[in-house]
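Example complex used in Figure S2.
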Amino acid sequence: MIYSSELIKGTLKTIVLKLLADNKKMYGYEITQKVKELTLDKIQITEGALYPTLHALESDGLVTIETEYIGKRVRKYYSLSPSGKNKTKEKVSELADFMETMQFLLDIKTKTV
Amino acid sequence: MIYSSELIKGTLKTIVLKLLADNKKMYGYEITQKVKELTLDKIQITEGALYPTLHALESDGLVTIETEYIGKRVRKYYSLSPSGKNKTKEKVSELADFMETMQFLLDIKTKTV
DNA sequence: CAAAGATACATAAGTTTCCAATGTATCAGA
DNA sequence: TCTGATACATTGGAAACTTATGTATCTTTG
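Predicted assembly (226 residues):
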């Protein structure tokens, strides 16, 4: 089962930031594979969503880029900047809070009836 | 604190369906107030988001409408249709599953490091 | 009793954010 | 040699929401 795409909306940026916080340094393709692996294929980040997101994070100054060559192939490593680390904490705790609220909403029936 | 709006995206339809499942019969304005109340003002559904959503649910056959007049003022009550009840179960369990996955992703660090 | 705020519906224009499709190129294995 | 994986990127389009605006009624308060 793959989650319907609308659920990913609004969480992608947070997922990427969190992965970078946990892994110091990752490149785009690696991120897509890591998310796929960690979520047992239930979340698949498409490249059309990821790359614009990474570029946005960079232009917001939240990540820095190091380019490496593996043979002749380019690989761009992304790392959190100091402000990126702060932003990650904010986003993660906001999302955690939001999910707690949502879980309460979803469980209303069993809790109040 | 109010959640940044991108988090709501993709969950609104599920929230509305779930509220209707728990309360049998609600009207639009009531839904906005109920969500506000249950989430301690952290989720505020705007009318510009809610009414189109309700209309979409209706045209998908997931809800039925009863119109009432309170004095001269119209009030439209929404109820789940049979297929709406099934859809609610699907959407709620998908969202619950998604949030479990997300919580795992957010907690990776403390679980694996 | 007038004005403000709450109730209650609705739509339109604009933005954000993602998906699907497409493109380029390299590398590994059968 | 060709297929599939690796690795980047962009474009067009759809979906879902926000902001703004509109109409109208009812209630409360100075």
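Residues 5-112 of chain B form a domain with the Arc Repressor Mutant, subunit A fold (CATH 1.10.10.10). The mean pLDDT of chain B is 90.
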